[in-house]
Design a protein that fits this description.
The protein has helices spanning 16-28, 33-41, 46-49, 51-57, 66-78, 99-108, 118-130; strands at residues 44-45, 82-87, 90-97. With 134 residues, it is mainly α. Strands 1-3-2 form a three-stranded antiparallel beta sheet. The longest helix has 13 residues, at 16-28. The radius of gyration is 16 Å and the shape is globular.
């Protein structure tokens, strides 16, 4: 039996606009850095993030209902930071980082997430509301 030699693949290259939008969405989300650091290693189910569990784990800033939590996680999927975990039965309720999410976390890992400005929140809300691809 032969073993294939795998080298570390080149990282994906994303446009500056994509990276900025993803970073803005990440810092405007109600989630803390601890959640994304955990998602680097393993899948995190919604039940571990929603309600009081999110606060106990250090994943959220405040209790989030499952619906709100799922909506915010789905927005992070749309901007390219997260993906749903899949098992042999299909899609699960777990989430993991995408390659873009890993790249952002590498840059942000040295400090806590930046505090978003009012203009960050307004821009993120506008893009989220109209679902523009920029």
């Amino acid at each position: 039996m032969t073993t294939a030699n795998y080298t570390n693949p080149k990282p994906f290259v994303y446009s500056q606009i994509t990276v900025e939008r993803a970073k803005r969405s990440l810092i405007c989300s109600p989630f803390r850095l601890a959640l994304f650091l955990t998602m680097q290693i393993k899948s995190v189910p919604v039940s571990a993030i929603a309600m009081e569990n999110g606060i106990k784990q250090g994943y959220t800033q405040r209790p989030l209902s499952e619906v709100v939590c799922d909506n915010d996680l789905n927005w992070l999927i749309q901007v390219g930071i997260l993906r749903r975990e899949v098992d042999g039965q299909g899609i699960t309720d777990g989430f993991r980082l995408t390659p873009l999410g890993h790249q952002l976390l590498e840059k942000l890992q040295k400090q806590e997430l930046a505090i978003p400005t009012l203009s960050d929140h307004l821009y993120d809300a506008f893009i989220r509301w109209v679902r523009l691809p920029f």
